[in-house]
Amino acid sequence: MNFTRWSARLPGTQRRAAARTEQAVSTAPRGDGSVPAARAERPSDGADPAPPDDTDGTGGTKVLAGLDELPAREVLDRIPALVALVHGADHRIAYVNDAYVTAFGPRPIGEPARVALPELEELSLLPLLDQVLRSAKPRTVKSRKAASGRSYTFTCTPVTLPLGGSAAGPEEGGGVLVFAADVTDHAEAAERLRTSERAQRETAVTLQKSLLPQELEQPDDLRIAATYQPGGTEAAVGGDWYDVITLGGGRTALVIGDVMGRGVRAAAVMGQLRTAVRAYARLDLPPHEVLQLLDGLAAEIDASQIATCVYAVHDPNEGSLVYASAGHLPILVRDENGTIHRAEEPTGPPLGTGGWLHTSGSVPLGPGSTAVLYTDGLVERRSEDIDEGVAALERALAGATGTPQVVCNRLIRALGVTADHDDDVAVLVLQHPARTGADAELFRNAALELLGGVEAAPRARAFATGVLASWRFSPELHDLGVLAASELVANSLQHGTPPMRLRLRRTDRRLIIEVTDGDDHLPRRRRAEPADEAGRGIAIVATIASNWGSRRTPGGGKAVWCEFALPK
Fold it and tell me: What is the pTM of this model?
């Protein structure tokens, strides 16, 4: 930018320039050299140089000789922004306006900026001056806070100083105009906004984490770990959640979901859905029926927000994971041979859309298998198709070994999730360990097909007596187990239909007794009157057992079970 040309274009500056020139000739004669007198008039005999020009005698507006006559000076003196003009390779001060003096104090003309303008060095602007002088291109830095507490946006513009028409290189004729606008009010408002956003985000994160399980339930047959990581400070908290629910009878429900929203509202909707899932899980319904109930509830909670979800049930007797998906990403399973299975079908639309009948599918989950449930924050990237992210997760799972928590951490690292990730991430890892040696002795199964007739009850009692004796239970637990098996079988014979089966199962923590039949009428506990000859079987089982329950089976029948906690 040519300082002379720029100033000459200002309205009315030609007349003021002529007046200033006449005054300068009569009162402040210049030397014959081609450089400003303040820089050129240096005695050669070692005497002290002449003091810099002080036009107002107060240390206010300072100007180098040769810049007095510039018409732009009158404009710069009056603007509220801070203006300084430096020249040469060491950025010697040529001019500062009244606003600059008011903000930082008087500044001696002719001194290098490193000495005379310490505020520029504190704000790390001296390297910027060098860059502007070399490149001849303007540069701007936003909202730098000075020691006074005020914030300024600095614009440094290259200028060509008037040096009597002689040719000059960058050091002699090159200068930088420093223009500083006070943006303290804007900076403080922005800081208040950032503080408010941080507080709101912290509230959402606290709410989100408080609604997630504080401690995961650990079933007898599975080893489970989960990880939740909120998005970075620039991302609003989402509605990712997970849960593990023990259903009784050795079965476990696993759920993971993602509310399509941000902030406190999404976290609140997530909390309501998670609570509803736990309530529906207690009904021991098939996965697709649970999602059907959730679909209607999600629309009632907030019709503007939808959610994806996977609900799965693991049954150790079946060696499979039965699941239903509402628009969620597929479950990944690595079997005992290291092969990865992707449970993609069936998948319905997200929760809250309505008008869809969800269906259940299954994927094998035998001993030695590992399954991963996750939200889209783990695999979705803006620059990639989401299928590429799922494929990357498959590759990472194939090589991730160790405990479930170790697998969680390795998957997050392998997928490049960091603290400043732009989305929430939830990961749920479950393993069905392959048990050998002494550990395998603690996990046993035994089953008996009941053909019906009067001999079924005695056969069931004899079978339970022999099995429980071989498992070396205490006499008290042995007798209670035989009594519970006898009552459940008697109830099935009276109210159920073939086929019937008695199953005994032990884990390292409990004894489970289960009877299945072909009738889907679920029993309920009721108070038997003194004259009643029936209705006491379930009441007896509920009294002696630690827990009991019933559910409908996929084939159209039912299963009635009870549990006894083993002494530790």
Answer: 0.68
